Amino acid sequence: MPNLGGRPATIARDDILRAGRELGMRRLSVKAVAVRLGVTATALYRHVDGRWGLERLVGESILAELRLRDDPRHDLERHLLSFALQMREFALEHPGLVTYLQLLFPRGDGGQRLLNTEVEALVRRGYEPAAAIVLSGAVASLTIAMTASEENSTAAEEADGDGLDRERQAVRDRLSRDDRLAGPSAALPEVPRPEYVRLLLTASIRGLIESCPPGRPVAEMVADLAATGEDL
Questions:
Q1: CB neighbour list of residue 5: distance below 8 Å, 6 or more residues apart
Q2: DSSP notation for the chain
Q3: Which residues contact 178 (CB under 8 A, 6 or more apart)?
């Protein structure tokens, strides 16, 4: 509530959290929350450690609502794909959250709970805890990166859909004039984004399972993944 005079407005951590969630992760900033609460930024610093503390407060509050479903009937590939798609769906429902996840994960209790949940699911499927952390982290990183690209594309469409359509058409026109690329690019099927994301995630997960099967020592897994990168 704005302060119209007299004593400074009193706010609590819960007020900051409420205002931050109303703004959403994409619009979140110390200044924006202070304006919404009718106080100075200094008032927020008594409760949160600047921008990083504010992001963590709001981001972890949102993550606390994500409950990963684990169907015991799913084999390893189906389980990891479900894990990735659940993360993607939740992130897209909360614009800006994926940027928070992309910077550093886990950053607080909400992210740590999710990591523990997934590690436990992989341990039930034959992995040692350390190996489960490596595998779940790899799948989460892939999912976060793909979702961030998807969200950026959506944001560009919302900001200037006509301009983006012109850019896409320019790309198609450029390819159509290329002797080598014109035919193959014209023959490519139109794949809706959800199916395209599922395709890429499935292929990536299969490759990770091949390199990181249950029962393999984590040191061997990490060395194999590192060697694969060096051979390229």
A1: none
A2: ----SSSPPP--HHHHHHHHHHH-GGG--HHHHHHHHTS-HHHHHTTS-HHHHHHHHHHHHHHTT------TT--HHHHHHHHHHHHHHHHHHSTTHHHHHHH-S--SHHHHHHHHHHHHHHHTTT--HHHHHHHHHHHHHHHHHHHHHHHHHHHHHHHHHHHHHHHHHHHHHHHHT-TTTHHHHHHSPP--HHHHHHHHHHHHHHHHHHHS-TT--HHHHHHHHHHHHHH-
A3: 185
How many angstroms separate the CA atoms of 126 and 213, rounded?
Answer: 9
What local confidence, expressed as pLDDT, does residue 155 receive?
74
Residues 6 or more apart in contact with residue 171 via CB below 8 angstroms: none
| Statement: residue 1 has pLDDT above 80 | no
**Amino acid at the residue 153:** S
- What CA–CA distance (Å, rounded) separates 214 from 212? 7
Cβ-contact 93, 21 below 8 angstroms: no
- Asked if residue 106 lies in contact with residue 133, where contact means CB atoms within 8 angstroms, the answer is no
- Radius of gyration (Cα) for the chain, nearest Å? 22
**What span, in angstroms and rounded, lies between the C-alpha atoms of 167 and 173?**
10
Residue type, 40: T
d(CA 93, CA 77): 24
Higher pLDDT, 189 or 59: 59
- Does residue 134 register a pLDDT over 60? yes
- For the chain, the residue count is 232
